[in-house]
């Protein structure tokens, strides 16, 4: 009996010590709504549109507040000034990625999207330099995008103006650009391999915001054995990694270090340099996760933006006609090229507004604090998960006159000239901003102008165009069909 009492007393003391430690640790933590046991604030957050809920909560608690997702504490940053302050003025302190049960299972700290520390720095440097060599800003990649535009036009014309769903077609066209950088290869749009990779990627992005994934991150040992979206993500991730491993294993046999043609070649060549860095970072685990990261990021956001663009052109035919008028005046029947953009302020403004209104990655990828920091009067311990709400920035009333409307004039001055808006940050800011930003901008301009040069987009007869996004980690259009009416 005395032993039992002693054990109970020790348990109570340890519990109280932990409570005291946590209270001290979070003494000046950002405020937020009261949380319920186990589920935290999940009962008050819209699972389809969590960013809308965050905007509502910020009205009560300000631009820096906390919520509980299950048992995990999150800090939400709202509005351009606050997000910029964190990601630019305190770039190093907010440059981490949170370690989650899901992330540990799928990437284990490798690659670029969810890695930390020196591994992340080495992978980001490699990615930026290799994208410059085989993609961004190079005439070669512009020519590949233009070539892909021709294949896309042929596919659209094959429907003869009749309704079709453009999801897999545009996914495949955009995927071919990042695949050309990764593998120096292109797939036909009906190739089973590219269709499978697209399906795996789209499913994982859709499942990432599910309740089961949130519960798994809070209670991995309890939820891990149950069926649900988290299990589907694991299965999809394994299939993707198996394909990638087969690919770079095959390329190892063909590698000519003096004639590197793509990112995988460049990575495999780094392995053979014999430097300490080669063993520490340029191993096959990093390569597999990095290629998966770049495929998903390079395909999903750009293709989703283009699909929003065509949907919005159908919704606003007057804007579509104005874009086509500018294309005729500046380009005529010639092939659109990146250099045309500076002469096309209205088209440039429309593309920017598609990105803003589409709000493709509303919550950004989560950040974490790399050290203890006092930010805007609140104390955030090292390892705090932080969500910079890009949705709140792209809808910031202080910077956008009509934030809830599709309004290209957000990027035009009174003379009709293109004007930058500093709160336009769809690629995020700071050390974790999108590494492929310049490539994405090139793709968006070339694909969009070529499509509108060749087709007028209309809704199928009787169809209603819904601008609400589908559920998922990214905001993609709901399933719909389009009619591409040839213009020439």
List the helices and strands and how they pair.
Blueprint: H1 2-25, H2 50-61, E1 64-69, E2 72-77, H3 80-89, H4 101-106, H5 117-134, H6 139-157, H7 167-182, H8 192-207, H9 211-218, H10 220-223, H11 229-254, H12 263-271, H13 276-280, H14 284-315, H15 317-330, H16 345-358, E3 367-368, E4 373-375, E5 378-380, E6 385-388, H17 390-394, H18 437-454, E7 455-458, E8 469-470, E9 476-477, E10 483-486
Parallel strand pairs: 2-6
Antiparallel strand pairs: 1-2, 3-6, 4-5, 7-10, 8-9
Helix pairs in contact: 6-7, 6-18, 7-14, 8-11, 11-14, 14-15, 14-16, 14-18
Percent in helix? 40-55%
Uncertain parts: 14-23
Beta-strand percentage range? 5-15%
Q: What is the distance, rounded to the nearest whole angstrom, between the alpha carbons of the first and last residues?
A: 91 Å
CA-based gyration radius: 24 Å
* Strand adjacency order, main sheet: 1-2-6-3
Q: H/E order of the elements?
A: HHEEHHHHHHHHHHHHHHEEEEHHEEEE
Counting helices, strands and paired strands, the structural category is alpha+beta
Which whole number gives the mean pLDDT? Answer: 91
Question: How many alpha or pi helices?
Answer: 18
Largest sheet: 4 strands, mixed
Coarse morphology: globular
Number of strands: 10
